[in-house]
Amino acid sequence: MLKKSLYLCLMTIYLTWMISMISANTGGIIATHSTETPIYSNQTQISLTTTIEYSYTDIASLGLEISIPDNWKFLSFSDENLPLEMYDDIISTYWVNVPDRIHIEYQLEIPENEVGVQYIYALVKYRRHGIDDPLDEIVLPDPLELAFSEYYITATAGTGGQIVPSGRINVAVNQSQTFTIQAENGYTINELFVDNESVFATNRYIFNAVTENHIIDVNFIRKNYQLIIDSTNGGSVNPSGVLNVNHGETQVITITPDIGYILKSVMINGESVSLSNTELPVTALSNMDIDIAFVKNQLFPTHHCEDSVYEPEISVVIQSRIENPYELNVSALSMRVQIPPLWTFISARGDRPPDDIRKSDNIINFVWISGMIDDLEFNYTLKPAQDSEGPKSISAKIIYRISDEDEMVTPITPDIRLEKKISSNNSTPTTSEDSGGGCFLEVVFE
Which site among 56, 113, 330, 381 is 20 to 30 Å from 374 CA-CA? Predict the structure, then answer.
């Protein structure tokens, strides 16, 4: 033991002096040593590997010295032809014909009842051709640390995730152990306990310099999202307001328009959603803003004429327009117009004239067999009777069906009022006081 201590002391002094001398000269050689079993508990033998690589092409000789722990026993090199010299716990070998790369394995016997951290030191000495300095150059790899697993950490996880590694994990004295916590999809870390004490919930926890047994436990909770449900007037939504829903759960929202209203739109996080019935199933995968809008299920018809007067047997053109601002699916549509007695219907024109026209006395029915979706505009021409006298009125209403709902009727207001034109010098047409101020209509949508 005294001899080994003296050897290590002299090696330390020698290396301290040599580092400044050779640090620029050792860049061409790299030495490493390793083992696949750095924890040696429950083992009687251990296998180690030393690798020496270099870029020099003029190495004349090379030697390797290995210092093993006290009472550990060297067993063998993997290459039985290597020369072997042993001095207490120092093992030496060398190469005269140096190969391109050195890779050797050797076995050590571990004494019974060995515990604690042990270190394997290595020293590479070599001489190059043509170098006048007789001193060997040295490469010292990092010491190899071997530990006895004296303690253990018990790691457990609840439903909804995992901790890696898990179970009973052996940890060497003064070694560190890292645990990674992974929540499953739809779950998040709820609580993390270390040695039965709550700690900050994180997805990574490290035990540093372990000197005792530990317990780590994590539990998870399903993610919870908020569904914010808002709606306009014109219907009921159940449930509504703010709902808390667990990840992956489906919440059914019942949407019921009031009488005279229909569902205009359903938007989830700004995206339009189609709905085939009154129930909207929503699966919670994130926070959601759900906006539901209702509108009156009606069309908006108007009619007017360019003049507020008529002359017998002089044609009068009536402009009609049916607006569908909410793009309702109108499956059937007709307009019923009542004209003054003895006035004659002449024709109908426009971008979308009626598909069929039915006349009976002073009633005209304009029919669009295929219904409508876009706005509809057309005009029709009437011829006043030869003996027409006084103010005349033209009234109208539309009759329609939206999808498969009941038939609806919307009057076109106000009626068109026309005064008979009076011909006299420097005279102007007159209008009755209750004519509504002319024949134009301003419509305000609700």
Answer: 381
The pLDDT of residue 229 is above 90: yes
Classify residue 272: in a domain, yes or no: yes
Residues 162 and 127 in one domain: no
Give the whole-angstrom CA distance, residue 30 versus residue 139.
Answer: 7
- The upper half-sphere exposure of residue 209, i.e. CA atoms within 13 Å in the direction of its Cβ, equals 0
Distance in angstroms (rounded) separating the CA atoms of residues 412 and 392: 16
Cβ 266 vs Cβ 241: under 8 Å:
no
Whether residues 62 and 40 share a domain: the answer is yes
Contact status, residue 225 vs residue 288, Cβ threshold 8 Å: yes
Judgement on whether residues 193 and 274 belong to the same structural domain of the protein: no
CATH (domain of 411): 2.60.40.740
Residue at 195 is within a domain = yes
Residues 63 and 134 in one domain: yes
Distance CA 260, CA 382 (A): 34
Q: Are residues 135 and 38 in the same domain?
A: yes
Host domain of residue 402: 300-420
The answer to whether 309 and 429 are in contact (CB under 8 A) is: yes
For residue 21, report the phi and psi dihedrals to the nearest 5 degrees. -85, -30
Q: What is the pLDDT of residues 394-444, one digit of tens each?
A: 999 999 988 777 788 999 999 999 999 987 554 444 443 343 333 433 333
Residue 263, helix vs strand vs coil = strand
Residue 420 phi, psi dihedral angles, 5° rounding: -70, 135
Q: What are the C-alpha distances in Å from 429 to residues 123, 217, 307, 340?
A: 123, 95, 10, 20
Would residue 79 count as lying in a domain?
A: yes
Q: Give alpha helix (H) positions in 250-407.
A: none
- CA–CA separation, 411 vs 302, rounded Å? 9
Number of helical (H) and strand (E) elements in the chain, helices listed first: 1, 36
